[in-house]
Amino acid sequence: NAGVTQTPKFRVLKTGQSMTLLCAQDMNHEYMYWYRQDPGMGLRLIHYSVGEGTTAKGEVPDGYNVSRLKKQNFLLGLESAAPSQTSVYFCASNLYRDTEAFFGQGTRLTVV
Amino acid sequence: KQEVTQIPAALSVPEGENLVLNCSFTDSAIYNLQWFRQDPGKGLTSLLLIQSSQREQTSGRLNASLDKSSGRSTLYIAASQPGDSATYLCAVRQDSNYQLIWGAGTKLIIKP
After folding, report:
1. Region A78-101: what's the mean pLDDT?
2. What residues contact residue A3 under an 8 Å CB cut-off, 6+ apart?
3. Which residue of B has its CA nearest to A99?
4. Residue ranges of A 59-78 with Cβ closer than 8 A to chain B
5. Would you call B99 and A41 a contact, using CB atoms and an 8 Å cutoff?
6. Is B50 within 8 Å of B68 (Cβ atoms)?
7. B45 and B84 in contact (C-beta within 8 Å)?
8. Radius of gyration (Cα) for chain A, nearest Å?
9. Which is more confident, A97 or B81?
10. Distinct helix (H) and strand (E) counts, chain A
11. How many whole angstroms separate alpha carbon B3 and alpha carbon B87?
């Protein structure tokens, strides 16, 4: 049982480049989330999804887009990367809102 | 706006000691509270989930308590071991939305 898997684990982008982070879960979870973690600030929610085909904005959505075409996958896109998007990105999922959340191993993104 | 605070930010204790980590939150209208550990460069591992109707949860040497009315949760670690060294994060899930609100974490070092 792989749980929550994120790809890639590391990436360096130049300002203005685009990329997509993939999150895959094999637990048949309804809810999926994308967070960013910055030093001294804790985790902040970027976007989330409450089921296949749905997405919603979190606390810091600007500069990011997401899609949930399949229940098991949640994609996070950066259309034009900026240095302020340098961060560690975590994907998480849970079966329902009141159940335990499981996290991926993170993607360390550097924008130069 | 919900705010979650973890004190202390860092803690260093000798192996074998019992210790308590604190988490406080400003809005008592929470759905549940979850404790995680994060090892350097790794993802987050869920430790304990306490629903708003519960007072405590236990898993092995870990015990988490919740006092919703006073906006406090504690994580008690018994007989600490060097392998317990990590950053411990607490997060509350709001009644009103799907978002987890995070504390900045307590970095715990257990000295052999």
Report:
1. 93
2. A25, A26, A27, A102, A104
3. B49
4. 59
5. no
6. no
7. no
8. 13
9. B81
10. 0, 11
11. 19
Peptide bond into B8 cis (omega under 30): yes
Model confidence pLDDT, tens digit, residues B51-66: 999 999 999 999 999 9
Decide if A33 touches B, using CB distance below 8 A.
yes
Measured between alpha carbons, how far is B101 from B4 in angstroms, rounded to an integer?
A: 7
Give the number of residues written for chain B: 112
Pick from A31-40, B3-12, B29-38, B95-104: least confident: B95-104
Residue B38 CB burial class (10 angstroms; 0-12, 13-18, ≥19)? buried
> Which token pair is A54?
């749905």
Q: Supply the mean pLDDT for chain A.
A: 94
For B15, counting Cβ atoms within 10 Å of its Cβ (0-12 exposed, 13-18 middle, 19+ buried), the class is: middle
A106 backbone φψ class: left, alpha, beta (φ>0; ψ -120 to 50): left
Structure letter (DSSP) for residue A85:
G
Q: What confidence tens digit (pLDDT) does each residue in B98-112 have?
A: 678 999 999 999 999
The size of the A-B interface in CB pairs under 8 A is: 54
